[in-house]
Fold this protein.
Amino acid sequence: MAGKAGKPSRPRKADKDEEEQPLQAVLVADSFNRRFFPITKDQPRALLPLANVSMIDYTLEFLTSTGVQETFVFCCWMASKIKEHLQKSKWCRPTSPNVVHVITSDLYRSLGDVLRDVDAKTLVRSDFLLVYGDVVSNIDISQALQEHKQRRSMDKNVSVMTMIFKESPPGHKTRCEDDDIIIAMDGKSKRILHYQRAQALKRLHFPMNIFHSGSDEFEIRFDLLDCHISICSPQVAELFTDNFDYQTKNDFVRGLLVNEEILGNQIHMHVTKDGYGARVSNLLMYDTVSSDTIRRWVYPITPEANFADLEGQSCTHSRHNVYRETGVSLGHGSQMEENVLIGRNTMIGANCTISNTVIGANCVIGDNVTLDRAYIWNRVHIADDVKVKQSVICDNVEVKHGVVLNEQCVLAYNVVVGPDITLPEGTVLSMHHPDEEDDEDDDEFLSDDNDVGYRKDKTKLKVFNPAEVGSEGKGYRWKTSSLEDTEEDELAECIWGEIPPEVSSNICCFDVVLLGVEQSLYVSSQLLKKWAPVFKNYVKRPQDQLDCLASMEEVFLERETHWAALVKVLMSMYQLEILEEEGIMHWFNQGSTTDKSQQLRRNQGLLKFIQWLQEAEESSEEDE
Amino acid sequence: MELQAVLMAAGGGSRMMDLTYNTPKPLLPVGNRPLIWYPLNLLERVGFEEVIVITTKEVQKALSTDQRLKTDVKMRLDVVCIQEETDMGTADALRHIQQKIKTDILVVSCDLITDVALHEVVDLFRAHNATLSMLMSKVHEFTDTVPGQKGKKKAGEQRDFVGVDVTGKRLLFMANEADLEEGLVFRKSIMRKHPRMLIKTGLLDAHLYCLKRSVVDFLVHNKSVTSIRGELVPYLVRKQFSKMFGVHNKCTSKEEALLQLARERSCWNDHRGDMSEAYHGGKLRCYVHIMEEGMCYRVNTLAAYIEANRVVPKLFEDPPIHPTAVVTERSLVGSDSIIGPYCQISDKTSIKRSNVGTSSTIKEKVKITNSIIMNGVTIEEGCNIQGSVICNNAVIGRGADMKYCLVGSGQCIEPEGENAVVQCSSGYTTHTKTHTLHFCSSVVFVLNPAFCVCVCVHSLAHVCLFFV
């Protein structure tokens, strides 16, 4: 009798336990990639200031405000710095509603490692939030959490994860180029049926089996931004342990969806319309999220709120979103137009124009300086007559007289630039030499994944090049390209390894082929075939195709006698699927600058080829 | 005149051959009106004064003689006959009448019974200057047992996938599951323009289309397109995202140019998210109105036919028993039944949830429930008919007991006797070896002259098949 009476009471007790469990969160304070290199050589990403507050503070504030009572912070790269920062912060005060535990290990290589450790240490007891240390958000999770719990109580252990998304259609400012995801979902149950990153795809393919779920309404959504916030059940950690090949969240989601029928686990989603949530996953996102914060999209997390409760950080908010901390001095005739945040004790000279800019503490800015979309961190000295557009300037940088920074420049810690130099678009300068291989470097990354692209610079001597940084400048120039290109994708990283070592750069490899063109046409097409896999590895994005075509054009312009060969090279590249018609058409339609290249484009064979391509494209459209 | 109406009434009704093998589909009685009356009425209700009817000789003759059609339909009918044998598709038919088409057209199929507010479809067409706008509705689940079909229909039927944008109006994609073995493929550019696409299955295409005049011109130039639904509509839907199509459609008329200018100057936009011009510069646009509620049937299967007959009478205001019908007082006719003109219903007969057509005679002690009795049917004494369809001019012998049967037109079911004989119109006969004609659960007459099959299921065990 006693046994019988005991039985029904036990599950009830378990229910109660579940309800009373404090909400836990796992915060991964490491990105496991080098998107922010070379800045993150000196400071971990989670501690980089965004609107003068470290990013990890935004994440913790979000977690606390959404009701998290216990947070596990996992650090790897520069763990001691993060730990030190957290110990000083309000999160480690005894009054903090959110208990923060810091767990460090040098062995974490990916999100998968972290979650496997969570499982091994059995840290989580119930559903938990999984976020990165660079997420800025004000989303109220409670509704999604409730939905998640409801789903789990209805179907025990079927739904393991609820991902949080924010609406941001293509063209939206906060849409992250790397997270170009496309999702197929069940219209009613909000279950994710298909999840794919689409940035390299031209056509989006959905297998039929996802439509056999018995529902008659599906939604395909290309207007979502992954906030990188997910509500996970403890099973998620177990699944990572079971599948030791899962490294990233992407692996996990894809793996779960593909094996849905075998494992029987489902992933659901929650879309927020009003909330703000974004991950600072690259510098473009840094720019976007910073300006969104200043424009108060993340309310109530605003600069003047001083949510991190830092001493002396309080600031005033005035019209046009101009924020000033204490001790700011502004010279005669200087204007702060709009969306400006200026840190404490910063001095600004006369006749400056400042808009959409964040300036850190203790900076000195000279006269006649123009700043637009500049992110200037602490203790930066900027001399007179400097112009800065959409650039990041890290701590202790000195920008001398008359320097112009064009779009998307990065001046990493302690760099000195100038005087009187104009940095072209996308310049990255750092005190670390691009080739230097620190031991600390290897701590975070697999040691053999060095970027092949940097190798061409190896011949460079380890002296500061005055042409790059100015006569009094200090710093090395990193690979020049747009912000996006400096940071390669996790995906790309694994592919880099497969490339034959003798091919060290794009340009080089085209030269090989085009030398072949010179020899004879026949050889070239054979060579092309031989090198096709190499090309395919390099030429992935539309931009690569254009680069490829441009370099080919360059070679052909030098050798007028071989113009006839151009068509054949193009044709075989097209047939080998190295180049796509869109790329070729774009190149062809691009305004040519010189007479000679116009002449090249008027080549009979080429015209015929283009016409053929157009027709092929048309008919492929009709086939669909 | 803004729109010309075209009524397609030449279809053979190939999916319900049991009913249509000697009654043309447009003339099948539904709620004691010929099927064609419903689309005509739909058009008349919204104020069309003229309609082009594409049909066969046989139907034309009926159109001119049928009293009901003559009195009810005030519109001018411009009847165009096509030969039955030529196997013309709907697009072929449009090509056939292209001389008559002066404006944009509204194409309606003769088997559509709906109470849709037609302006919804036309408004989409007007508001977006669309090339095509069409009507769809939720598919109805037919719950009733269908004569001649055992059990429920298999769920494995191929679904139509319809993709609409977030407003649910713009038609972005259309395909049948059968063509999608490889999976659904979209070009990224489409997703960029319409980042949120709803894919719906379980929709019924009402076969009602508003089409631009230019589409008819297109058909004239492209003779390979034979069917509107099968080829033209999918083509138009696909072409919305083709870069090349815009070139053919250069705005030439002054009106077009004005519209263009108006759109350029206005701040209106059809989409949100990006800042590109309205419709992303596309000239060809397809829209769909999806009925959330209301009635919409396409009478193209037996199940739909039966369902329509059940539902339709409730919509009429006229009395359920036609004034010219003779119904004796000692019979029982439920208020959910309708009795057509010149019917005779004798004593002790009960009729429930059934439709009885024109000039039918029903003798004493007959019980009819859930059935459709067409025109000129004679039912002798003591019959029990349940869930069945009795076609024109059939004669049901004394004491027949029928459940879920379909009796073809002109059939004669002999009275209770030693050998019951089921006679087919084509002259083939089937002898059933039962003493009483006891039709239970399923009886099928596949009334094809080549062979005649009669399946009788008596008691539970015996299933007999007779091939002649």
Chain A has a mean pLDDT of 79. Chain A has three domains: 24-283, 306-430, 517-619. The first strand of chain A starts at residue 23 and ends at 28.
